[in-house]
């Protein structure tokens, strides 16, 4: 059951492994990389409705989608109906995203203050009103991504999900934490189960899927239709492939060798260069490189040195030099 393709609106997904939206990370360089490792659906990072309406240059750059990423959900956030609808219409008509996702989970103060993100979780009526306004105004399927609630005392997960469903949402993704939890503590899968028992549209569970085994367990224990993976894919995109294969066959595929991992890191870097240019790409790639190198024996000094790199040449040389060192190490241990 868990391995069958499934549909969101008119979009056919090849499998039930979805990569989460992550601000500052989920640009097309990252998405394309996880897509190549088999993701059934990728989400773009959250984009401000007002930024779209004002055609802010940085915001418009976030709308870049490579056609190899399909299917893709583009996520917008906002606190007012008019601007949210206008931005959704822009995404609907002017971008090649397959799906429009509304952010109802972002916990940070800057967003909450604008009545956006997780703020809606306190008010199922507002969810109904806002989601209805968007679904009525666009052609593309609309999904929402929410948290289970605001805090322990205000977990309206079932009411909120039903409100979104009634308002015409084609899918819901839910992170099993409250707003107050931020990223701390454990994701509450019991609440995910309660929601999956109540809604009929595709339901994507999220939170604390760190391994392929976790993904299987979430599908089995909560009855969600698909799993969404965020942090576990950072510097670890092959984890997506391992999860897809594990769900399909029960077989655990070995992870790539350290040298192969660095090849993927370099590929990601080159994509980021093409997308953002050298200065920004090198800076952004520092954190990714540290994630890619995590767990590789002897990578400590390289991970520190990465933070000092400023140019493509420096970063590439550092990584290729380390590959060389790893290859030599292999030779001496054979
Ligand atoms: C760095 C970072 C950025 C995030 N940005 C977004 C975002 O733009 N939109 C969103 O809906 N969730 C965002 N999230 C939340 C993730 O999509 C996901 O719900 C959360 O990380 C829990 O899943 P995980 O345990 O698999 O990481 C972000 C999370 C992280 C760690």
Automatic annotation (TrEMBL):
GO MF term list: flavin adenine dinucleotide binding; tRNA binding; tRNA dihydrouridine synthase activity
Coiled coil: 305-332
Residues that, per the record, bind FMN: 21-23, 75, 145, 175, 230-231
Keyword vocabulary terms for this entry: Coiled coil, Flavoprotein, FMN, NADP, Nucleotide-binding, Oxidoreductase, RNA-binding, tRNA processing, tRNA-binding
Catalysed reactions, semicolon-separated: a 5,6-dihydrouridine in tRNA + NAD(+) = a uridine in tRNA + NADH + H(+); a 5,6-dihydrouridine in tRNA + NADP(+) = a uridine in tRNA + NADPH + H(+)
Domain annotation DUS-like FMN-binding: ranges: 19-324
Class of the enzyme per the UniProt entry, highest EC level: oxidoreductase
InterPro entries according to UniProt: Aldolase_TIM, DUS-like_FMN-bd, DUS_fam, DusB-like, tRNA-dHydroUridine_Synthase_C, tRNA_hU_synthase_CS
Active site (UniProt): 106
PROSITE patterns reported for this sequence: UPF0034
One Pfam family recorded for the sequence: Dus
Keyword RNA-binding found: yes
Names of the cofactor(s): FMN
Matching PANTHER family: TRNA-DIHYDROURIDINE(47) SYNTHASE [NAD(P)(+)]-LIKE
NCBIfam families, per the entry: nifR3_yhdG
Job description of the protein: Catalyzes the synthesis of 5,6-dihydrouridine (D), a modified base found in the D-loop of most tRNAs, via the reduction of the C5-C6 double bond in target uridines.
Descriptive protein name: tRNA-dihydrouridine synthase
Organism this protein belongs to: Savagea serpentis
Lineage: Bacteria, Bacillati, Bacillota, Bacilli, Bacillales
């Amino acid at each position: 059951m868990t391995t069958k393709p499934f549909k969101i609106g008119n979009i056919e997904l090849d499998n039930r492994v979805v990569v989460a939206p992550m601000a500052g990370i989920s640009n097309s360089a990252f998405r394309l990389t996880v897509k190549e490792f088999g993701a059934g659906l990728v989400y773009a990072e959250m984009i401000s409705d007002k930024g779209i309406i004002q055609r802010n240059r940085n915001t418009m750059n976030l709308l870049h989608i490579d056609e190899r990423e399909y299917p893709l959900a583009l996520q917008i956030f906002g606190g007012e109906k008019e601007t949210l609808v206008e931005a959704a219409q822009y995404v609907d008509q002017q971008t090649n995203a397959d799906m429009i996702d509304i952010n109802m989970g972002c916990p940070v103060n800057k967003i909450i203050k604008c009545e956006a993100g997780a703020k809606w979780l306190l008010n199922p009526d507002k969810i109904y009103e806002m989601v209805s306004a968007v679904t009525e105004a666009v052609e593309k399927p609309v999904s929402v991504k929410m948290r289970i609630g605001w805090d322990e005392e205000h977990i309206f997960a079932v009411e909120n999900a039903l409100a979104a469903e009634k308002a015409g949402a084609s899918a819901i993704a839910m992170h099993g934490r409250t707003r107050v939890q931020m990223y701390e503590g454990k994701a509450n899968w019991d609440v995910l189960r309660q929601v999956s028992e109540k809604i009929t549209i595709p339901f994507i569970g999220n939170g604390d899927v760190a391994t392929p085994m976790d993904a299987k367990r979430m599908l089995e224990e909560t009855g969600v239709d698909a799993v969404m993976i965020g942090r576990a894919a950072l510097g670890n995109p092959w984890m997506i492939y391992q999860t897809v294969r594990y769900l399909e066959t029960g077989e655990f595929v070995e992870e790539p060798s350290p040298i192969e991992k660095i090849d993927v890191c370099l590929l990601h870097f080159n994509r980021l260069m093409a997308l953002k240019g050298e200065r920004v790409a090198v800076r952004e790639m520092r954190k990714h490189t540290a994630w890619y190198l995590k767990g590789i024996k002897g990578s400590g000094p390289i991970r520190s040195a990465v933070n000092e790199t400023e140019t493509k040449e420096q970063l590439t040389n550092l990584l290729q030099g380390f590959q060389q060192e790893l290859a030599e190490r292999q030779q001496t241990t054979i």
